[in-house]
Amino acid sequence: MDKIDRSIVYLLQKDGKITIKEIAERLNLTTTPIFERVKKLEREGYIKSYKAILDRKKIGLQLMVFCNVTLNLHQTDYLKKFEKDIQQFPEVVECYHVAGMFDYLIKIYAEDMERYQDFLSNKLASLENISKVQSSFVMTEVKDSTYLPIP
Amino acid sequence: MDKIDRSIVYLLQKDGKITIKEIAERLNLTTTPIFERVKKLEREGYIKSYKAILDRKKIGLQLMVFCNVTLNLHQTDYLKKFEKDIQQFPEVVECYHVAGMFDYLIKIYAEDMERYQDFLSNKLASLENISKVQSSFVMTEVKDSTYLPIP
DNA sequence: TATTTTTAAAGAATATTATTCTATTTTAGT
DNA sequence: ACTAAAATAGAATAATATTCTTTAAAAATA
């Protein structure tokens, strides 16, 4: 990753649909080197994928909730079981095993409070080994950045 | 948003680089209606943007941390001040104002613990009005889904 | 039910972009 | 300075996006 590569991933983070030609123009190069650099960045895994970013509210997902989950038992088998179960739920879009005041942080999307309650009562809380669940409801999305702070 | 539109955004969430032609083939339509539907979804804001997804570890960001931030004063002016300040930090990739046990949840990327400590001590904790900061370090990314649970 | 109006889709033509290939230049190592 | 490797330019080709015209389907109205 040299300076040119960093410029390329910066531009692609901002707009995944930017053309090779446009990147080339901005960096004062021709399409060939840009094309090959992009392919290399993809091949070597610096660029994992390209995605369309949807507006969750427009598609009807009014609620975004973070849950701090604490388990009872922490042996590997129990963790693996929980992780496998939680992945099945489409409402759960992110799940992290964390070191801190609780065990897992999960991000959930729901259409409304009723659906969230249904998820909580009938899905999450129904899993074995759950000790405590603490919900934080998102009121405002202050920042949701496109850019990783590329060192 | 009819059935076809939902199929389109589903495919675009999975792969933002999928061609109009390929979507058309999968949905047994020609390129024209797909092209127009995609443009409409973009124009009306269902699709907000397209982005390249980078591998944070490959680009040197070993640490991912969530912080629960609690403020002292909660009048609008103080909240706005904090929100404005926190947005400046490139390390902070997400920030949400939440209702729950604390005020703000922020997601941070850092190269290593040293850089994180520097961020915490010299940037975050230096802001006025901070009452409490609780860090949770991500050990495992159990799930990081491409797909919103489209209703 | 027949008729009009609107919307969606097909098919063909054109414009743009991605991709490949060959030749040239630059860079790093000896 | 010389050699080898890597990077880039420029041109040619392939694939895709985009536009345009025509046709079909659906919805609304009388």
From TrEMBL, chains A, B:
Gene3D superfamilies: 3.30.70.920, Winged helix-like DNA-binding domain superfamily/Winged helix DNA-binding domain. Pfam families: AsnC_trans_reg, HTH_24. This is AsnC family transcriptional regulator. One of its GO terms (molecular function) is sequence-specific DNA binding. InterPro entries: ArsR-like_HTH, AsnC-type_HTH_dom, Dimeric_a/b-barrel, Tscrpt_reg_AsnC-like, Tscrpt_reg_AsnC/Lrp_C, Tscrpt_reg_HTH_AsnC-type_CS, WH-like_DNA-bd_sf, WH_DNA-bd_sf. PROSITE patterns: HTH_ASNC_1, HTH_ASNC_2. Keywords: DNA-binding, Transcription, Transcription regulation. GO terms for cellular component: cytosol. Residues 1-62 form the HTH asnC-type domain. One of its GO terms (biological process) is response to amino acid.
